[in-house]
Sequence to fold (207 residues):
Amino acid sequence: MPPGQGLNQPSVDPFAFLNEAKKPRKISFGSFNGLSFHRKLMTLGIGLVVLIILILVLKSVFGSNRSVNMPSIYSVLGQEQELINLSTTGSQQSSSSQSYLDFSQTTIASVTTDQNKLITLLSSNGIKVSLRNYVLQPAADAKLTQAIQDSNFDPVYSSVMYTELKLYQTDLSNAYSLNKSAILRSYLKSDYHNTVLLLQMLGSSYG
Fold:
């Protein structure tokens, strides 16, 4: 009997390595990029919550179109346009003093800038502005026209501009209280501050 015959030797498959190579690698869900599965789920959950909060915050910054009280905004825009028109008339009076012209030109630049910023803000949030909805006061323009004819423009203009700037402040205050958007309120507050400076300039120019 050959040596070793009759002994129970373990059978060895010489092609076993081929079978092992063909076995697909098991994907472990216990870790992903160094994080455990539960931590990954927690991270994704936190990220989703943060995203939702961010969307809500951004939405509340301005709000939807319905949250904007457009009548109050149109009153502001109309008063701004009225101030621009009146100041333009004032800047065209060549006989006026330099301080008088400076006030008129400063008012045009300041109010035009404020109006453009407000329109841009509304447009960027999908709100179209129509000039036909502006609230204008033709009586103020008529007073200046009459003052030019009477050669009494300066004192009339000073009085009219004071009144119109005060009306503008009232419109800004009303719009501020009727609209809850934080960014819209910041614009209205800035515009109000500018009217204070214009009134101070008017006072120093005309006494």
Remarks:
- The chain has two domains: 14-62, 66-206.
- The chain has seven helices and two strands.
